[in-house]
Amino acid sequence: MQNTSPSTTDSPTADPGTSSPTAPTLRSPVTPLPTRQARTARIIWGEDRGLPSSRAVDTGTRRMLASEPDRPLALHDSWWAIAVAGVLASATLTVVLWISAHVTVDPVLHTAALFVHLASLVLGFGGVLIADYLVLVWVSGRSTLAEAIAGAHRLHLPIWLGLAGLVASGALLEPNLASTLTRIKVPCVLILTLNGLQALILSRRMARAATVSLAPTLTIWGAATASVSQICWWTAVWIGFWNAEH
Predict the structure, then answer these.
(1) Is 155 helix (H, G, I), strand (E, B) or coil?
(2) CB–CB of 225/202 below 8 Å?
(3) In this structure, how many other beta carbons lie within 10 angstroms of the beta carbon of residue 50?
(4) Which stretches of the chain score pLDDT less than 70?
(5) CB neighbours (10 Å) of residue 236?
(6) Which pLDDT value is given to residue 8?
(7) Fewer CB within 10 A of the end CB, N or C, for the chain?
(8) Rounded to the nearest 10 degrees, what angle do helices 216-245 and 180-208 cross at?
(9) What is the SS3 assignment for 172?
């Protein structure tokens, strides 16, 4: 019978006294720190219309609605700010009067100042007329109060730029400060400026009441503001025209 057991020559027995060499283990002298996952917050812009979200919103998600942005303090936010702006406007007008009495203007500069003066009149007084026209359109029932207020609000910048251009260029037109008409015109310009400053608060309160009926107090306030504006503008324009012709 053939012996089927494996022989010692087929499978050599390893010597227990000897060990096979192993590959060395490389270790960094610096132990790496575990990475931290940055927590980011998603910003969702636009109006919250109450629609169900297709995916769950994390606890770190912030909703920043575009309809309610963080607004800095503006002139129409406080009567104190209006008062400070009025004092600065009065001081500026005083400086302009002093410059007009102590500066000698050559014909070229006088012509340039006259052009700026007329352009500023078109810009500022034109904006006032358009704003009052929008109010009349609302009174006649052809537009909403919100549309009238929004249109008038967009005209604030050209009106103020026009008024500033009129005051600055008027200092170089050599006004006759001894004239009675000029002494009437200067207070008209100051009243016009102060009236425009308080109108900023009026427009803000009207904007809040644009969705409901306008209170009688705001109606009277708005009518008085528009009347003072028109009287001062037309008086200043007429005096300026009269002085130029005489």
Answers:
(1) coil
(2) yes
(3) 5
(4) 1-77, 210-212
(5) 22
(6) 47
(7) N
(8) 150
(9) coil
Element counts in the chain: helices (H) and strands (E) = 6, 2
The answer to whether the CB of 240 falls within 8 A of the CB of 185 is yes
Domain ranges of the chain: 106-245
In single-letter form, the type of residue at position 56 comes to A
Structure tokens at 183: 């002494």
Q: In this structure, are strands 62-63 and 43-44 parallel, antiparallel, or unpaired?
A: parallel
Look at residues 225, 203, 228, 215 and name the one whose alpha carbon lies nearest to residue 149.
Answer: 203
Q: What is the pLDDT of residue 92?
A: 93
Burial 204-226 (b: 16+ CB within 10 A, else e): ebbbeeeeeeeeeeeeebbeebb
pLDDT of residue 141: 87
pLDDT, residue 215, reads 82
